[in-house]
Structures are given as structure tokens and as C-alpha cells.
Amino acid sequence: MMAGVSAGRVLALVAAVLCLSSARAAGDDNSTLAPTMAPTNPMGTLTAFGGDLDMTYTVLDNGAVQVQVSYPMTSGWIGVGLSDNGDMVGSYAVIAGQGVSGIPAPIGEYKLTAYDAPSLSSSRAITDTSIEVNNGIMTMEFTATTIAGRSLDVSGDGDRIIYAVYEGSSFGTQHARAGDSTVNWSSPVPSSAVRLAPLGLILLGALVNVIMI
Q: Which domains does the chain have, with CATH numbers?
């Protein structure tokens, strides 16, 4: 141990660092709480189309999934749906758009039965919906336990999802880009996430290194 540094002083320094870590963690928790529901899992991420499409999802305390999808455009529509086999036809989708003629609603639920402009589903359960354009980025948001009558598999193996975008002004036009993926909504940490050590642990490690020199 470094000469002149007493055991009592070391313990006091360690306690101070741990208090700083606890205060920092409490502040972080308070700053990330949702207005009505705190997430029970870290946020998951999915990107597609060379990084142009960005989707995030979070499971809330009530088991619903909060979804946000963004794409760089000012006019067009974005769609995300549940699919058994990755096909558009037969899927259950949320579609939202701006600057698009003929769209039944700014954001709504659809059962896709053919490669035609769909009609709104009679089953409407999504909440906290929004569609907006800021700085050239269109962003759709919604919270759901079901989409067009189809339940999300939050506690099991997850769902196969489809996603599509169309940039233009006509709702009846087929998507320009589309893809599919499998999402485990309750996955604790997505593979694309990077976890940083809390500030207190970093400082504590540095302090121990200094003391042991």
C-alpha cells in the first residue's frame, strides 16, 4: 500500500466513490422514466436498409411494447407488422404516413390480405400513437399488446416482423423498400447495444490502482 495512506483514509475514499455512484445511478433512473410507465427491459434496436431505417422497442411494466421507427423522408409512409413467414400478405401491420393522399388515417392498424391498398382494421388497440417529421426524418411511434387483433409474443420467443417504407405522395403505391426480421421483445440487451461501466465503478477501479502502486 502507498506510504502515508492509512486504511481509514482508503475506506473513506472508497465510501465516497460508492456514494457518488449511487447518486449518479439515481439521477440516471429519474431522467429515463417514461411519463406513464417505466420500462422493465433495456431498449432493443433494429436497423435496416443500410442504416436508414431505425427501430427501437421497449417492454413496459404492463407488458405492452413501445415502438419507434424512423426513416429519412418528409413525405411517404412507414409500416411495421407481425408475420408468420415474412410475407406482407397475411400480416398484421401498423402503417403511418404524412403528405400521402388516400391514407385512411395518419397512423392505424391493418390486416394485409392482398397486394392492394389496405383498409383499417376493426380491431384498434394501439395507444400513444404519433407520426411526425423533424429535420427530414419521419418518425412513427406507438404502444401495443396487439396489432389488428394479433397479439405480440412478449414473454415467449418473440415475433417475426416485417417493415416497409414508401417515399412519395400516394398511399396506394407499393412500398419501395421492405424486409423482415425476428425480434425477441424481452431480450435483455440487444447485440448492437454497447454497455458502459457506471461512472462510480470506473472511479473506484482507478482509485484502487492508485492505492496499490
A: 7-35+197-212 (no CATH), 44-183 (2.60.40.1210)
